[in-house]
Design a protein that fits this description.
The protein is of the alpha/beta class. The protein is built from eight helices and seven strands. Strands 3-2-1-4-5-7-6 form a seven-stranded mixed beta sheet, sandwiched between helices. A hairpin with a 2-residue loop joins strand 6 and strand 7. Helix 7 runs parallel beside helix 8. Bound molecules: S-adenosyl-L-homocysteine, 3,4-dihydroxybenzoic acid and magnesium ion (MG).
């Protein structure tokens, strides 16, 4: 992708963000603190964060599971969409990411709504399942891509008909169509898409996106059975 092209995508992202989304000190502070702590800047974009927020509100979700917290930017967007009494559990493997996120989430006034569970998600998901929570209404999968198919299996197990599962980064700059790619993330995303296609209990689609984060996309699955 030419840098001219990427600059245009970023300019359009800014155009919509400035038009449609009020400045938000807690979200700005979360990004600033994450950058200051040296976290990778791979959070969802503001427009994508708001899209997740609107999805959660539109469906009236009361419980959310997130896999991959980073500094809590997507977490804050999601948690703010919950009604009073709603809960969000976010799984994060990196202790420093979890620490930065905890502070960001507290600053956003969401400490009582959000619980971060530290550990590799494939370790913490079975623990979560053993606790016999109510099913999650909404699941956002956004951690290490090689495990996406496994995360999707857990998401299905922890949800109910009517739940929605969103999976980030399913386009990988277009490389998702390259069966011979040696990139483990690309292979993980390909395996996930095949898993999604073979799953009779969901209706799914995938949408390509361009913007400040380049060329990527997300998949959405509605659990039907
Ligand atoms: N959802 C965040 C971005 C997440 S980036 C946002 O949009 O703001 C991906 C995160 O997944 C990183 O913080 C990384 O440490 C975490 N991660 C990587 N492997 C993991 C694993 N096995 N289990 C849980 N989290 C993992
Ligand atoms: C990248 C982007 C993401 O949204 C993510 O979850 C992981 C990595 C990236 O651009 O490298
Ligand atoms: Mg992502």
């Amino acid at each position: 992708m030419s840098s001219e092209q990427e600059q245009q995508w970023s300019a359009v992202d800014r155009f919509f963000a400035e038009l449609l989304t009020d400045p938000d000190p807690a979200l700005d502070a979360a990004l600033a603190a994450s950058a200051a702590a040296g976290l990778p800047q791979i959070n969802v974009s503001p427009n994508q964060g708001k899209f997740l927020h609107l999805l959660v509100r539109a469906m009236g979700a009361r419980t959310i599971l997130e896999i991959g917290t980073l500094g809590g930017f997507s977490t804050i967007w999601l948690a703010r969409a919950l009604p009073a009494g709603g809960r969000l559990i976010s799984l994060e493997a990196d202790a420093r990411h979890a620490q930065v996120a905890t502070a960001n989430i507290a600053r956003a006034g969401l400490a009582e709504v959000v619980e971060i569970r530290l550990g590799k998600a494939l370790d913490t998901l079975p623990q979560l399942a053993a606790e016999a929570h109510e099913p999650f209404d909404f699941v956002f999968i956004d951690a290490n891509k090689p495990n996406n198919a496994a995360y999707f299996d857990w998401a299905l197990q922890l949800s109910r008909p009517g739940s929605v599962i969103v999976v980030d980064n399913v386009v990988q700059g277009g490389d998702v169509v390259d069966a011979n790619s040696e990139d483990r993330s690309v292979q993980g995303v390909r395996r996930f898409n095949e898993r999604l296609a073979a799953e009779p209990r969901v209706l799914a689609t995938a949408i390509q996106t361009v913007g400040a984060k380049g060329y990527d996309g997300f998949a959405m699955a509605l659990v039907t059975g």
